[in-house]
Amino acid sequence: MKVFPQKLINFDVAKKPPLEEIAEVQKAIKNAETELGDKGRVLIRYSGTQPMCRVMVEGPTDEMTNRLAEELTATVKKCIG
User: Fold this and answer.
1) Where are the domains of the chain?
2) Which end of the chain is more exposed for a tag (fewer CB within 10 A), N or C?
């Protein structure tokens, strides 16, 4: 099994609107998944126990993984505050 670089960013949120209903977030996820192709994955979800959102990206390189995780985090923060 090949292990890919992973980046996890956790940040506090004041509210938890359904991420699947936020078009800008969905577009950003789709763009990241397209860029990664079959060489990585994206997971964005709320914590079940804390007022927190988690953004996780796995990708073929540290540079790509970190960049995509930071971009996705910025998009989610912009959309939900």
Assistant:
1) 6-80
2) N
